[in-house]
User: Fold this.
Amino acid sequence: MNFETIPSKKSFFIDLSWQYITCTASGIAAFFQSHQIKHN
Assistant:
């Protein structure tokens, strides 16, 4: 088992999940903003 590859894989998955979370958060924010505008 090569321990040198573990940090790079870990950071890769963290970057991937961080991008997913950021995209999802911005999507949810836009979704709520559009609904608030419709209600007002």
The radius of gyration is 17 Å. The helical segments are 5-39.
